[in-house]
């Protein structure tokens, strides 16, 4: 082979090498570009989801605050316009409507404040030594009239031997209020609810069982996320804000406990939460 041919082969090989390096460089750049596009898409999907959640929340909030405000306006308008012609009982009914509507609104506002405290890590509990059974019985008694109106029976099955221990009574009441109100709301007429307490190892365990429609496995953990609600509102006229279980989870976890959902046998759901008997 002549020196000329060898030089040509070397030049060709060098050219091929340069071309190869160029393509590798371009394909690396291209894959970077593709990754960036994927990342941008993901971020914008996330932003869209946050925006959608914000819009849903605002729509829900407006809806939830509008009805009690309308009731309050209607009742106060009537009293201002027709005060002389209203009987004492009628005025009392109107005042009660204003009172229950304003407490409903206050509950929503308090829930939103609790969520923002939980999210910013500023949520605090104040523990005192107390008897949890007493709180369970008092809270279940509070829901008896609401349950009676749907012919739902509430049975208490508390472990009398539970020792006193330290917990935040107001916050534990808040957890029970949500679990009991959910059980009454989402259980059909003639159903039943059971409230149970027992000691499992070092944990005091509380169960709220109902004979409602139950919750499918894929939704069990999702219900502890903000604003998640099932389409099971056929047993209730009230909608709620979908914040109750998130707050309940925050309260139980602030005590060092856990909360979860199980199936109730033969029908319905069982909400279980635990609180440590001793301080860590
Ligand atoms: N015992 C239950 N049986 C069936 N579904 C339930 C039960 N408890 C909760 N759920 C479902 O979980 C959703 C979330 O419950 P959560 O208590 O967080 O919100 P809410 O009751 O809708 O509103 P809020 O408690 O904020 O007033 C409910 O809307 C309902 O769809
Ligand atoms: Mg609720």
UniProtKB/TrEMBL annotation:
Annotated Gene3D superfamilies: 1.10.287.130, Histidine kinase-like ATPase, C-terminal domain
Protein location: Cell membrane; Membrane raft
Keyword terms, alphabetized: ATP-binding, Cell membrane, Kinase, Membrane, Nucleotide-binding, Phosphoprotein, Transferase, Transmembrane, Transmembrane helix, Two-component regulatory system
Reactions catalysed: ATP + protein L-histidine = ADP + protein N-phospho-L-histidine
Entry's transmembrane regions: 6-25
Chief localisation class: membrane
Cellular component terms (Gene Ontology): membrane raft; plasma membrane
Protein topology in the membrane: Multi-pass membrane protein
Single Gene Ontology MF annotation: phosphorelay sensor kinase activity
InterPro entries, per the entry: HATPase_C_sf, HATPase_dom, His_kinase_dom, HisK_dim/P_dom, HisK_dim/P_sf, Sig_transdc_His_kin-like_C
UniProt-recorded name of the protein: histidine kinase
């Amino acid at each position: 082979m002549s020196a000329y041919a060898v030089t040509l082969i070397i030049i060709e090989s060098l050219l091929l090498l340069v071309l190869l390096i160029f393509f590798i460089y371009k394909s690396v750049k291209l894959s970077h570009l593709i990754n960036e596009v994927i990342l941008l898409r993901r971020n914008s999907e996330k932003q869209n989801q946050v925006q959608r959640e914000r819009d849903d929340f605002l729509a829900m909030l407006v809806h939830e605050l509008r009805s009690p405000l309308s009731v309050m306006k209607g009742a106060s308008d009537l009293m201002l316009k027709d005060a002389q012609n209203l009987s004492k009982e009628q005025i009392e009914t109107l005042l009660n409507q204003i009172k229950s509507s304003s407490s409903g609104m206050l509950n929503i506002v308090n829930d939103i404040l609790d969520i923002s405290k939980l999210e910013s890590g500023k949520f605090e509990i104040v523990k005192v030594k107390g008897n949890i059974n007493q709180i369970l019985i008092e809270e279940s008694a509070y829901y008896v009239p609401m349950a009676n109106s749907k012919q739902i029976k509430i049975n208490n099955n508390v472990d009398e031997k539970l020792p006193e221990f330290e917990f935040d009574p107001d916050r534990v009441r808040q957890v029970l209020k949500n679990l009991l109100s959910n059980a009454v709301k989402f259980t059909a007429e003639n159903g039943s609810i059971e409230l149970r307490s027992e000691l499992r190892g070092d944990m005091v365990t509380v169960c709220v069982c109902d004979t409602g429609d139950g919750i499918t496995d894929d939704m069990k953990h999702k219900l502890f996320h903000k604003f998640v609600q099932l389409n099971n509102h056929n047993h209730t006229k009230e909608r709620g804000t979908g914040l109750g279980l998130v707050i309940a989870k925050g309260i139980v976890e602030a005590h060092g406990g856990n909360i979860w959902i199980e199936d109730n046998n033969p029908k319905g759901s069982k909400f279980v939460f635990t609180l440590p008997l001793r301080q860590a």
